[in-house]
What we know:
three-stranded antiparallel beta sheet; about 55% helix; about 20% strand; alpha+beta
Amino acid sequence: KLNIDVDIVQHGVEGLSYLLTESSKLMISEIDFQESIHVLEFSDELNQLLLQLYLDNRKEIRSILSELAPKLPSYHSLEWRLDVQLASRSLRQQIKPAVTLKLHLNQNEEQTAQVLQTDPSTLLHLIQQLEQALGEMKTNHCRRIVRNMK
């Protein structure tokens, strides 16, 4: 009916849905939204229609996006054990430590357990990496990103 190629219509719909979902994810203000679409050089009337469409539907879009987000497991408890092999038949004096972790997780009202085993040096490296990640969360850059995600 429009006498327009199907690909053009499809790309237009995809672009519009991308604009609305990303704007809703970031909860950008009216002014920021207008500045974002001003670059597209649409008419003022179309810009106002897009702004009104965004304002009318952003809460509904956010609720749909939150339902589509994967439900990640959450921490419940942790059990650990240190095993040390002191000798074997072929090697009388050896020390081979191993740390076994049993991680209990909650997911969708169900409790699951994951068993992990590692050597102490790898565990120390993992701890250092996690502490570094926690330290990075305290930087101003990360705080700004987290604040904008909410």
